[in-house]
Amino acid sequence: MQAVLNRPTAPQSALVQFALDMDDTPAAAREASAHERTGLALGRDYALHGITPPIAHLYPQSPLQRGWLAARGRPVRTAASPQVELWLALRTHAWARGRSFEDIQLTPHHLAQLDTTHCPITRELLGDDNRSIDRVRDDAGYAAGNLAVMSRRANRAKGSRSHAALGDMAASCAAGPITRIGGLAEAEWQRLAVLASFVTPLSHEEAAQIPLRVLPPNRLRLFNPIQALQALITRQLATPGWSARLSRLEALLPTDTLRTDFNRFLLALAPRVLAAAELQTPHEIRWALEDAWALPLVQKRWARFALQLVPEQAEALVERAAAKKLSPVHVQRHDDGTDGWALATGGYAV
Length: 350
What we know:
By secondary structure, the protein is mainly α. It folds into 3 domains: 17-80, no CATH class; 81-221 and 337-350, no CATH class; 224-333, no CATH class. Helix content is 47%, strand content 7%. The chain contains 15 helices and 6 strands. Helix 7 packs antiparallel against helix 8 (186-198) and helix 12 (256-274) packs across helix 13 (282-292). The radius of gyration is 25 Å and the shape is elongated.
């Protein structure tokens, strides 16, 4: 019911509206904290998918247990898939640690698209006993675009280190005399540093001089346009027809100087990959592309080309290449790439 009251004392009467709807929310739910409400909703989802929550949360005071018990008698929606089980486990992990979990885009379907056969950092085969999901940017929550699947060993070593701190670890291994720190060698620390750089806003000059020692995992958001262009060009060599596609991409460049330097860069990159032409599996081809960036000549020629561009040009090239179907992977632009990342609270739930 709404009541509209005029105030005759004002020089010009103004309408004031009051919403007098009945509030049938139980008092206990109204007074629950955000943490409790999240736990209740999480317990309900366990019940609706026919899954028993982890025993660590099945104690009388647990909001998760209360939500599970309250909904346990309802019909089960569908038999839970492995992706749904992972989704519930990740939400529970985030909730127990007070971390933010963005649940609009971060769905079981999204998590399924993150899966990979090998760790992008250590390159070890992943199984149920060593697979983990990492928040690439530690000052953000669990959100679409900030997650990558990697081995537990790499995840533990990475910890809460930033892009800069991970680069320092790689430099320490390179300087010796200790060549492995935290169980990782220099190349593995370099891959972690590059991975973190993708979701770290950097100056164009800095981003243009980072060798692509690891290709961006699926669905990771790239904040620096020049790295998006770098990854798009490198991925071309992983699928047949790359020469024709790169020729069409070259035609999009605005000057002869840029086209010349682009070709010089490709002449440094392509032979290393062509030498591994007998490779058949996707992960081996991916590793060959990444390892080609270890060559100083490849990085030198890339930097010469990339530093002639500005971020807006790099972004436009990626978008035009995607529009002309020159990209072997799906490209999606996000105007607010950190929506739902909880950066204001350091990745913690409010």
